[in-house]
Amino acid sequence: MAYFLGIDLGTSAVKCILVDSQGGVKASHSVEYPLLQPQPGWAEQHPEDWWKGTADCIRALLAKSSVKGEEIAGIGLSGQMHGSVFLDQALNVVRPALLWCDQRTAAECEWIERTIGKEELGRLTGNKALTGFTAPKAIWLRNHEPHHYERTAHLMLPKDYVRLQLTGAFGMDVADASGTLLLDVENRRWSPEVARQLGIPLGWLPPLFESNDVAGHLQPAAAELTGLAAGTPVVAGGGDQACGAVGVGVVRQGIASVALGTSGVVFVHDDTYQMDPECRLHSFCHGVPGKWHRMGVMLAAGGSFQWWKNHFAFEELQQAEAEGRDVYEYLTALAATAPLGSEGLLFMPYLTGERTPHPDPKARGGFIGLNMRHSKAHLTRAVLEGITFGLRDSMELIKASGIRITELRVNGGGARSLFWRQMIADIFGYPVVTVNSTDGPAYGAAVMAASGVLQQDIASLCEQWIQVVDRVEPNPEQQRRYEQYYALFRTLYPTLQSTLHQLTDLVSATAE
Ligand SMILES: Nc1ncnc2c1ncn2[C@@H]1O[C@H](COP(=O)(O)OP(=O)(O)O)[C@@H](O)[C@H]1O
Ligand SMILES: O=C(CO)[C@@H](O)[C@H](O)COP(=O)(O)O
Questions:
Q1: N or C of the chain: less Cβ packing under 10 Å?
Q2: Statement to judge: residues 111 and 198 lie in one domain
């Protein structure tokens, strides 16, 4: 039997899955690694940890599945997007990578938009300068660590560093490259004009591929470390959002996905290049060759729920541990005991700043409307409702662009909860479906590997392998009541923006 190996290099862990040639998942395994936060708003990881975690994960996966390295017909990589890996001429890591959720580059983003011009930047790249994107990180390095900038000879994204270790070959797919702010997204090539104006050497950037192109073959040293066979083809793969969308079959117009991971993403497929004139949505190349997508990104979706669990769910954690169950199941059950609208309580989910629709590293979260009757159940429900209202903001931008959506496919950890899926159906007003492949980005990466090796297009593989297994319809009465809360939610950020900025500045000033 031939298998395809999908690797998803996430923010908290790497996940590896084996998919057979009918699309069935044979086995999966994951290995965690640390996230460094050396200063408030900073987020870094050691690329060496990614590689060690990936090699350990593949070895453990082969051992637990009893699949031999020689049975793997192809490998695909998905990864957290935007992170900056700086390597020197000898391919040593220059400093830890700055991640997608790192917020330190506000000044660099302003400089980029001043230097190139907002409109011109949109015309050249399809996007605006956002703190999470890669080019501002390179400029931050030049401004703050010139000794590291001088040493740098290669700039790449997280999963491309892992592919380099696997194959010895440089490469990046156009889907992930779209989040660097150095890609001419419309024409699927680097933008020499943007690189020149920003002073970033074009020679730092790897060759570009489509996601299902074979970008290299496993080198002997990596084969020895992982238990895979030398020479195994490795496709370019994609950023985790493009891979996650492929993994749930969002490969044609009309279907949108909502990803409830640490970040939260509303994603639509585009057959032709479509740019949001004000760049409020990201306009990126899709992992499907010759196609594009748009998306709105919330920085702390599942991340807000995780924060709530970490700090305020002691009893639920104890109970879950004692019964060997998932603590989030207890929390969603608790939330379900509170009424819709959490009895007049709203939550702002901007705990790490925000991207869509408020590109603002100084945005912060909050509970608004607390009264003496509110209990933990109300606050828990308000957290889930606030995240979902925030994601609806992205959906509104997508709808305003004229796209007709018939169905939402949910993926990521939050998609496990039926209660949350019903809430999405009611707040968005669309049917919400789940599919048989629950491994999201890792599954999409395996589809890309199979597509490259079997020479079959991604859309037809998705059609064969991915089926809808559950469908939740919006409840008209709940939809109507949520509409009133959503209207109030929309007023919160504009009303509180200045206060939130002053609070953030006050904390920074106190920390200095
Ligand atoms: N059973 C559940 N019900 C609701 N939310 C959940 C559940 N399990 C996980 N989550 C949410 O999903 C998040 C993790 O999603 P995942 O896709 O694994 O994240 P990552 O972005 O790190 O890959 C958690 O932080 C939590 O908010
Ligand atoms: O920044 C983005 C997309 O633009 C994030 O989606 C990251 O790519 C990682 O998110 P998680 O998968 O960890 O939620």
A1: C
A2: yes
